[in-house]
Amino acid sequence: MVDFTSVEGLIKSHLEDAVVKVTDLTGTADHLGIMIISDAFMGKILIQQHQMIMDILKEKLGSNEIHAVQLKTLTKEKAKAQGLL
Q1: Alpha carbons 5 and 2: distance in angstroms, whole number
Q2: How do strand 19-24 and strand 31-37 relate by DSSP bridges?
Q3: What is the pTM of this model?
Q4: Does the residue 8 lie in any domain?
Q5: Which domain, by its residues, includes 24?
Q6: What are phi and psi of 78, to 5 degrees?
Q7: Is residue 83 one of the residues assigned to a domain?
Q8: Strand pairing partners for 37?
Q9: Averaged pLDDT in 10-residue chunks for the chain of 85 residues
């Protein structure tokens, strides 16, 4: 079980412009849905974007605080186009 605020803060500490939303996918607080909006993703393919986030979360994943994640990564431009910003 992980504190969602700490996950959000961890991501924001690496991606200062990030808008982060963390949700519980299973009710156990260890399977997380994480949406990250950041211009740090510009010019990167989806796998590179997800690798960036997985690198940030690797300690929490390795310690079993987080069992699984479902990532959605977008640039601010794409988020605005989808009505998320």
Answers
A1: 9
A2: antiparallel
A3: 0.92
A4: yes
A5: 4-76
A6: -65, -40
A7: no
A8: 19, 74
A9: 91 97 93 97 98 95 90 97 94
